[in-house]
């Protein structure tokens, strides 16, 4: 398919869990991630919780809502155990099947995003297991991920709703590793299991992406048609990819067709890079850093901003230190520091400037469609409603798309 301009939203926390987006799912446990949740619950209780969550969190009506907001695509994070072949985790291929049927009914496309890998590609809680980043060091698990990509391609490659497949979400590279401070911010439950944890080298990642591309396209393996896109994440360093997949003439080599670069740009990350925590500081950063960066890289690949949102420390009333919540031991504001009108002005301005920056590329997916955290009645969560696109639209912070 031609890559029409993407106006999309992520269905995060549906098939890949993130505790902060639905803390109640982890009640009665000390687990902070999906890896340890089933180790602390009776198997029947675990299965009941997961199946109920999946059935209730996203359904047909949500696809109708997304369409009504003027959006045209959803990015769906899926786990490596989607096919149900990695006990004790419960597969979720039936849910993805339903999503394709809903998407086709409402005229939306789907980007399947492989969001986790065994022993994790990043060490984040959203990578499946906190404080562990060893997947790239385990050849059998690398091969397993390739097999998951192949199976997804075979199952959905010819579906009308499929926009494409993203090879792996947010691999944590040497560029990001010190800033993410993984081993401190995400403490490993089992230090022995985490032994050897470290960043993924760019040379390794580039080779893996090329292997994955060919496996996805190979008629005997993935059979992904060339009119569907293969998406790769920038590993938190967008500048690394200017010579990627290029031929001797500097152009994209002819064997690579319909390849898209995904970059994730959050204001909370900009803050950790020194962006002033003011409305003017954010706006300046978006206009003078994000916009030209997207424009420049779009000369090499179509660029989508696969994750971004309006969340920022000013809206929270406290410095979140890169988006850390009360679950990370951060002290959230107890009362609003901005009036409703001031918040609306802050967020509307940031929505406009970021949407303008992303328009230099090929589109965006807001993170996230929804979260279940009660940011009104639960102390310390002021400002976190900005992660929830539905709440942003309801409060007139984010414009319904035309």
Overall description:
This protein has 402 residues and is an alpha/beta fold. It has one domain: TIM Barrel. It is 34% helix and 10% strand. It is built from 13 helices and 8 strands. It has an 8-stranded parallel sheet with strand order 7-6-5-4-3-2-1-8, covered by helices on one side. It is globular. One of its GO terms (cellular component) is extracellular region. InterPro entries: GH (IPR017853), Glyco_hydro_5 (IPR001547), Glycosyl_hydrolase_5 (IPR050386). This is Exo-1,3-beta-glucanase D.
Question: What does this entry show, briefly?
Answer:
The protein is α/β, with parallel strands linked by helices.
Number of domains: 1
Taking the sheet with the most strands, its summary is:
8 strands, parallel
- Largest sheet strand order: 7-6-5-4-3-2-1-8
Low-pLDDT ranges: none
Which whole number gives the mean pLDDT?
96
Residue share in helix = 25-40%
Tally of helical runs: 13
Indicate the overall shape.
globular
Sketch the topology as an H/E string, one letter per element. EHHEHEHEHHHHEEHHEHHEH
CATH topology: TIM Barrel
Quantity of strands, as a count: 8
CATH architecture: Alpha-Beta Barrel
| C-alpha Rg (nearest Å) | 20 Å
N-C termini distance: 21 Å
Q: What is the CATH homology-level superfamily?
A: Glycosidases
InterPro entries: GH, Glyco_hydro_5, Glycosyl_hydrolase_5
Domain Glycoside hydrolase family: 56-315
Family: Belongs to the glycosyl hydrolase 5 (cellulase A) family.
Membrane topology: Single-pass type II membrane protein
């Amino acid at each position: 398919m031609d890559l029409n301009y993407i106006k999309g939203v992520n269905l995060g926390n549906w098939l890949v869990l993130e505790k902060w987006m639905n803390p109640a799912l982890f009640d009665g446990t000390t687990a902070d991630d999906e890896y340890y949740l089933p180790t602390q619950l009776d198997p029947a209780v675990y299965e009941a919780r997961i199946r109920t969550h999946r059935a209730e969190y996203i359904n047909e009506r949500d696809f109708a809502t997304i369409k009504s907001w003027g959006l045209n695509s959803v990015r769906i994070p899926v786990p490596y155990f989607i096919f149900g072949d990695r006990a004790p985790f419960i597969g979720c291929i039936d849910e993805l099947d339903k999503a394709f049927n809903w998407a086709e009914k409402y005229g939306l496309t789907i980007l399947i995003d492989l969001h986790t890998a065994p022993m994790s590609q990043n060490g984040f809680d959203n990578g499946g297991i906190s404080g562990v980043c060893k997947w790239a060091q385990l050849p059998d698990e690398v091969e397993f991920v390739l097999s998951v990509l192949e199976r997804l391609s075979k199952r959905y490659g010819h579906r009308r709703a499929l926009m494409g497949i993203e090879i792996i979400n947010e691999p944590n590279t040497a560029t990001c590793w010190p800033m993410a401070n993984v081993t401190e911010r995400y403490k490993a439950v089992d230090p022995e299991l985490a032994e050897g944890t470290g960043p993924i080298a760019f040379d390794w990642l580039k080779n893996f992406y090329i292997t994955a591309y060919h496996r996805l396209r190979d008629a005997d393996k993935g059979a992904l048609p060339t009119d569907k896109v293969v998406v790769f994440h920038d590993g938190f360093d967008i500048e690394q990819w200017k010579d990627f997949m290029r031929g001797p003439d500097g152009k994209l080599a002819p064997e690579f067709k319909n390849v898209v670069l995904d970059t994730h740009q959050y204001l909370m990350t900009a803050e950790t890079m020194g962006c002033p925590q003011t409305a003017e500081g954010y706006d300046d950063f978006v206009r003078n850093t994000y916009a030209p960066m997207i424009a420049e890289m779009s000369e090499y690949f179509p660029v989508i901003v696969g994750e971004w949102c309006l969340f920022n420390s000013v809206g929270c009333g406290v410095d979140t230190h890169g988006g850390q919540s009360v679950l990370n031991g951060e002290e959230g504001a107890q009362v609003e520091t901005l009036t409703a009108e001031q918040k609306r002005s802050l967020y509307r301005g940031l929505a406009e400037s970021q949407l303008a920056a992303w328009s230099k590329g090929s589109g965006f997916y807001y993170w996230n469609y929804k979260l279940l955290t009660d940011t009104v009645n639960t102390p310390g969560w002021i400002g976190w409603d900005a992660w929830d696109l539905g709440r942003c639209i309801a409060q007139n912070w984010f414009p319904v798309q035309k």
